[in-house]
């Protein structure tokens, strides 16, 4: 006796199996991002020229561009950009560095974890800009208080991202390091840190965007030069061209920053590919 | 260097995992540990290599390891444990350099172990580019690079498909035949145990205790699965394990 088989379904209709896979795997061809910008700007330009967007509600993109060119020609662009970039770099670097260091410590030592995790949770939701007056009292009205504000604002999200990333490092890899009698520092530097790097870098993306927001806020509250001060002046005069020129610079700064992290990711995380 | 386990017992909180295990691991032999899943084989192996401490008993080392042994007790893990951000070569060089071996000396060790595991062409490859069997060969190469006195292997072939397993088994036998090493080999696969083990320790279900120790004297190179003596041993092992495995399977439901 043979095993029973089903009779062949000769008469039944044959059709291809419905495709249900695919998706959930975004890739990002560069030109699409650029296209979105171009289309948006072209639309605004066309709308303001055709007149269905009033000049009072939206400045014409070409005028904003002309304002930017003027700004660059007169040299005022650098007068505003240099202090802003310095604040961003100094404050952001301090915040990111201390944040990564503290985050790694929280990830590695029970005492530090027990002591600092609640503190960080308490600090995280404070709107940092509300503390600017405090920082002015502590660090003076000059640059130091702005550095402190930006550093503090980058610090908290970086800490949270970093210790989460350290927690997620594959324990079997650490066990492997110990089983080969690797030194503690080698395990931390060559196993824990590289393993946490993807999480740390994606945390930095968020932290640095927050740094830009705080930069502008700090400059609006008290600075002679800086992109924030420039926007504030333009805003108080309802000079929309200059306001938008300032905002465009900020956006560019954000894109630049995110691009830089992208380059770092490519170099450091090439192994993921 | 020999190892001796002296009445090892262990509990995780209120779960008794191992009960009074005493065992000798003589130099130059392969000791296989088999037992139903969850009986504490991996835990026992972690004690042997000093990655964890038992609640009672101890593992003692008899005699000094060879002077040229960089890391006397060396593991090969089931899931390979390769660093994905380092190339094949980088995974090995990291360990050598941490033990102060760099430059030309490291170079020659790496070339030698990669040749022994037939990986010379894949020196620069990333782990993600390798198949499972190749990854485990890299892990074995890495273990050989530190010239271990005892190799501790926790189901090294379990993550691989059966053809790859067969090939790697032959590789292990060839490595041992060329230069006998001491090994503790944990597996749940009885065929692997009779191919590779000089001494097969059968553990009971949790709490794991030594149920029986089966010795096989036949040289590794002569063993093939068609051999009636090996077949009988394997049947005997299966007979021992079967009841335990069935009982263990039922217990898990009640836990
Ligand atoms: N770190 C741990 N904490 C608590 N229980 C554990 C731990 N490791 C293993 N166990 C338990 O100990 C028992 C033995 O585990 P293990 O040694 O991995 O078994 P095997 O390798 O034989 O399958 C299991 O019941 C497991 O749940
Ligand atoms: Mg196990």
UniProtKB/TrEMBL annotation, chain A:
<dbReference type="GO" id="GO:0005886">
    <property type="term" value="C:plasma membrane"/>
</dbReference>
<feature type="transmembrane region" description="Helical">
    <location>
        <begin position="147"/>
        <end position="166"/>
    </location>
</feature>
<feature type="transmembrane region" description="Helical">
    <location>
        <begin position="210"/>
        <end position="231"/>
    </location>
</feature>
<dbReference type="Pfam" id="PF00528">
    <property type="entry name" value="BPD_transp_1"/>
</dbReference>
<keyword id="KW-0472">Membrane</keyword>
<feature type="transmembrane region" description="Helical">
    <location>
        <begin position="31"/>
        <end position="52"/>
    </location>
</feature>
<dbReference type="InterPro" id="IPR035906">
    <property type="entry name" value="MetI-like_sf"/>
</dbReference>
<keyword id="KW-0813">Transport</keyword>
<comment type="similarity">
    <text>Belongs to the binding-protein-dependent transport system permease family.</text>
</comment>
<feature type="transmembrane region" description="Helical">
    <location>
        <begin position="243"/>
        <end position="264"/>
    </location>
</feature>
<keyword id="KW-0812">Transmembrane</keyword>
<feature type="domain" description="ABC transmembrane type-1">
    <location>
        <begin position="81"/>
        <end position="265"/>
    </location>
</feature>
<feature type="transmembrane region" description="Helical">
    <location>
        <begin position="88"/>
        <end position="112"/>
    </location>
</feature>
<dbReference type="GO" id="GO:0055085">
    <property type="term" value="P:transmembrane transport"/>
</dbReference>
<keyword id="KW-1003">Cell membrane</keyword>
<feature type="transmembrane region" description="Helical">
    <location>
        <begin position="119"/>
        <end position="141"/>
    </location>
</feature>
<dbReference type="InterPro" id="IPR000515">
    <property type="entry name" value="MetI-like"/>
</dbReference>
<feature type="transmembrane region" description="Helical">
    <location>
        <begin position="187"/>
        <end position="204"/>
    </location>
</feature>
<protein>
    <submittedName>
        <fullName>NitT/TauT family transport system permease protein</fullName>
    </submittedName>
</protein>
<keyword id="KW-1133">Transmembrane helix</keyword>
From TrEMBL, chain B:
<comment type="similarity">
    <text>Belongs to the ABC transporter superfamily.</text>
</comment>
<dbReference type="GO" id="GO:0005524">
    <property type="term" value="F:ATP binding"/>
</dbReference>
<dbReference type="InterPro" id="IPR027417">
    <property type="entry name" value="P-loop_NTPase"/>
</dbReference>
<dbReference type="InterPro" id="IPR017871">
    <property type="entry name" value="ABC_transporter-like_CS"/>
</dbReference>
<dbReference type="GO" id="GO:0016887">
    <property type="term" value="F:ATP hydrolysis activity"/>
</dbReference>
<dbReference type="Pfam" id="PF00005">
    <property type="entry name" value="ABC_tran"/>
</dbReference>
<keyword id="KW-0547">Nucleotide-binding</keyword>
<protein>
    <submittedName>
        <fullName>NitT/TauT family transport system ATP-binding protein</fullName>
    </submittedName>
</protein>
<dbReference type="InterPro" id="IPR003593">
    <property type="entry name" value="AAA+_ATPase"/>
</dbReference>
<feature type="domain" description="ABC transporter">
    <location>
        <begin position="3"/>
        <end position="230"/>
    </location>
</feature>
<keyword id="KW-0813">Transport</keyword>
<dbReference type="InterPro" id="IPR050166">
    <property type="entry name" value="ABC_transporter_ATP-bind"/>
</dbReference>
<dbReference type="InterPro" id="IPR003439">
    <property type="entry name" value="ABC_transporter-like_ATP-bd"/>
</dbReference>
<keyword id="KW-0067">ATP-binding</keyword>
């Amino acid at each position: 006796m043979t095993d029973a088989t089903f009779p062949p379904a000769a008469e039944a209709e044959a059709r291809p199996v419905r495709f249900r896979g695919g998706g959930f795997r975004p890739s990002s061809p560069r030109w699409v991002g650029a296209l979105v910008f171009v289309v948006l700007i072209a639309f605004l330009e066309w709308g303001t020229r055709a007149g269905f967007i009033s000049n009072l509600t939206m400045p014409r993109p070409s005028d904003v561009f002309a304002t930017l060119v003027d700004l660059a020609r007169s040299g005022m662009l650098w007068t505003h950009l240099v202090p802003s970039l310095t604040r961003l770099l100094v404050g952001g670097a301090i915040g990111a560095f201390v944040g990564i260091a503290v985050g790694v410590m929280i990830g590695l030592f029970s005492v530090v974890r027990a002591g600092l995790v609640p503190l960080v949770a308490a600090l995280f939701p404070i709107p940092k800009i509300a503390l600017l007056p405090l920082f002015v009292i502590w660090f003076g009205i000059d640059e130091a208080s702005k550095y402190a504000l930006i550093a503090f604002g980058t610090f908290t999200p970086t800490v949270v991202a970093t210790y989460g990333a350290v927690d997620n490092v594959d324990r079997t890899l650490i066990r492997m390091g110990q089983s080969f009698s690797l030194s503690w520092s080698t395990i931390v530097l060559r196993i824990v840190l590289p393993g946490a790097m993807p999480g740390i870098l994606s945390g930095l993306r968020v932290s640095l965007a927050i740094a830009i927001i705080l930069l502008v806020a700090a400059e609006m509250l008290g600075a002679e030069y800086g992109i924030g001060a420039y926007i504030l002046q333009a805003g108080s005069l309802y000079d929309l061209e200059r306001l938008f020129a300032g905002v465009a610079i900020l956006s560019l700064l954000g894109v630049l920053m995110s691009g830089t992290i992208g380059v770092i990711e490519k170099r450091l995380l090439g192994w993921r590919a | 260097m020999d190892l001796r386990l002296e009445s090892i017992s262990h509990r995780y909180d209120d779960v008794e995992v191992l009960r009074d295990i005493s065992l000798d691991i003589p130099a130059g032999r392969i000791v296989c540990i088999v037992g139903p899943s969850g009986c504490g084989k991996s835990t026992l192996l972690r004690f042997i290599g000093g990655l964890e401490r038992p609640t009672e008993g101890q593992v003692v080392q008899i005699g000094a390891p060879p002077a040229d042994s960089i890391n006397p007790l060396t593991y090969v893990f089931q899931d390979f444990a390769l660093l994905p951000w380092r190339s094949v070569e980088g995974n090995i060089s990291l360990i050598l350099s941490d033990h102060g071996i760099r430059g030309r000396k490291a170079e020659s060790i790496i070339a030698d172990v990669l040749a022994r595991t037939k990986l010379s062409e894949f020196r620069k490859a990333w782990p993600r580019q390798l198949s499972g069997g190749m990854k485990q060969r890299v892990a074995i190469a890495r273990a050989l690079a530190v010239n271990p006195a005892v190799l501790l292997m926790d189901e090294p072939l379990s993550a691989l498909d059966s053809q790859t397993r067969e090939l790697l088994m032959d590789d292990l036998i060839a490595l041992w035949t060329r230069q006998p090493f001491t090994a503790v080999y944990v597996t749940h696969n009885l065929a692997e145990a009779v191919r590779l083990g000089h001494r097969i320790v059968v553990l009971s279900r949790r709490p794991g205790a030594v149920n029986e120790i089966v010795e096989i004297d036949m040289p590794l190179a002569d063993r093939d699965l068609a051999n009636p003596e090996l077949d009988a041993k394997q049947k005997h092992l299966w007979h021992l394990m079967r009841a335990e495995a069935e009982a263990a399977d039922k217990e898990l439901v009640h836990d």
